[in-house]
Amino acid sequence: MPDIGMIELILIGLIGFLVLGPERLPEFLGQIAKIVKQGRAWVNSLKKQLEYEKHTLSQPAQDATQGVGESLKEIKQDVEASLKDVTDAAMVEKKDK
């Protein structure tokens, strides 16, 4: 957000007073405040929706990651068992010679 100092606010207020006059300036400021309030509500709603979507999408990804991890553990155990079998068979063959 841009930094607006006191001098800028006074200058904007003075120009608004000169352009709109004292009768319409309060109504105009009220409309601006209403627009800003609606904008903030919209941004907050958008943030909540994004957080919900992030949570909704991250949960299946975590589940899939956990499933892949378990599959990799099973594959590792199978490879280690096969390696042990091959090693044992080689040892037996070596003893037979």
* First-to-last CA distance: 83 Å
Q: Radius of gyration, rounded? A: 35 Å
The coarse overall form would be rod-shaped
- Largest sheet report: none
Query: How would you state the average pLDDT, rounded?
Result: 84
What is the number of beta strands? 0
Relative strand content: under 5%
Secondary structure class reads: mainly alpha
Q: List the secondary-structure elements in sequence, H or E.
A: H
Helix tally equals: 1
Overview in brief:
The chain contains 1 helix and no strands.
Describe the structure.
The chain is mostly helical and 97 residues long. Helix content is 94%, strand content 0%. It is built from one helix and no strands. It has one helix at 6-96. The longest helix is centred in the middle third of the chain and has 91 residues, at 6-96.
